[in-house]
């Protein structure tokens, strides 16, 4: 793509450190709003819709995918085939598309009584130049799961506290519990309280839960409430092997459905994947290999090309004049979170179409998505990557790996582990039908903390794993060890999510102006 142009800019590389947070956008890349709303106020001169045009003196030469290469050829030149046309950032369409705030009021979901997220608040923008993303109005996971159902009064909605039988408010310390028992357990642990020993094994009920604190605390422990159980820690190799061995044992020890049933299940899951996921691997690889030559991606490889992309389509809501380092970083981090939310929405719709998923307790559906979406996201991200970079903006842009490495810490640390994982994962040469079953198996993990019906979830995953095994034998007959390799990747993905959660925590602590979207607060809550 020798004709791809990039424009020069005086911005330094550390100004856009948060672009590294693009790692969280897996299907469809970074989708940045090019509407009229702005977290900063007025439009920047020269931005889209500003009535001004960028200074032509700023124009300079860009990079091409032919220089960067593609993963398929292994020689660094295959990506250029058929991609010699000029690519312009104008009209790249980095729209958010379906954010809750853009919908008519009547289309917005009200917070359900069983919502796990902090209720969103429609409030005026704060007086400072930053948007507090934590106050964004957004449907929770349970809201999204209930969307489109005719009957939302099923038994799965009103889940009882496992300690006292009161109405559970969410998953707390690894157990579905009410606010009272959650607070009791938190105070006991935090203040290191010791209660007078009781040998009567007192019944703990809603009206009598405060009578015997010793028995109440013992019941909390017996049911699995633990400050450590809800925290992600580094997964030892022995635990990884145990996880893989358990999955293999279950796969061989459970009565297998008939072959035709497994084929039907695989077809249903694949159809759900194709229907609900915006950027499939087939579409992404056609762009990365140059087969989609009519509209090659615009390459962002340095600050100059990034600035042209910004002028052409991306950050048109920056403040009037040169933005400060933090304002650009917070803005990009803000937009990357929005795209993560959209990916979670896609995965939620996909999960709802997995056979029998909606038959689970609602709280089990929420738990499976809460703990599984990031593993699923990171398993789909390699589809958008080669060894040199990743597609963004629904395939209309390509951000180079070297550029992401050059960003300031901690944002330069987000992407690199995903690239390292992607290189190995892509070597397995999976297609979309393989990935559909793999992602479904990730979501249906029966060892998630706080599941109410573990047996039902495990049986569902067993069926998915058997369908995956059979499908791989047909689609990859020359790779007899592909199935156990994928089970190992499930363990690797857990470690990748652990490290990512720790990095998000670090960003929250060190970047004071950042805030988390309510849906991401819900997902990350109790994870660290």
TrEMBL record:
Recite the UniProt keywords alphabetically: Activator, DNA-binding, Metal-binding, Nucleus, Receptor, Transcription, Transcription regulation, Zinc, Zinc-finger
The Nuclear receptor domain sits at 158-232
InterPro entries assigned: 1Cnucl_rcpt (IPR003074), NHR-like_dom_sf (IPR035500), Nucl_hrmn_rcpt_lig-bd (IPR000536), Nuclear_hormone_rcpt_NR1 (IPR050234), Nuclear_hrmn_rcpt (IPR001723), Znf_hrmn_rcpt (IPR001628), Znf_NHR/GATA (IPR013088)
The segment annotated Disordered runs over: 28-144
Keyword Zinc-finger on this protein? yes
Where are stretches of biased composition, namely Low complexity? 126-140
Q: What Gene Ontology molecular function terms does this protein carry?
A: DNA-binding transcription repressor activity, RNA polymerase II-specific; nuclear receptor activity; RNA polymerase II cis-regulatory region sequence-specific DNA binding; zinc ion binding
**GO aspect biological process, one term:** hormone-mediated signaling pathway
Tell me where it mainly resides. Answer: nucleus
Compositional bias per record (Polar residues), positions renumbered to this chain: 111-120
Subcellular location as annotated: Nucleus
Domain named NR LBD is located at 298-526
Q: Which GO terms describe its cellular component?
A: nucleus
Protein family per UniProt:
Belongs to the nuclear hormone receptor family. NR1 subfamily.
PANTHER family found in the cross-reference section: NUCLEAR HORMONE RECEPTOR, PEROXISOME PROLIFERATOR-ACTIVATED RECEPTOR DELTA
Entry protein name: Peroxisome proliferator-activated receptor beta
* Species: Synaphobranchus kaupii
The uppermost taxa in this organism's lineage are:
Eukaryota, Metazoa, Chordata, Craniata, Vertebrata
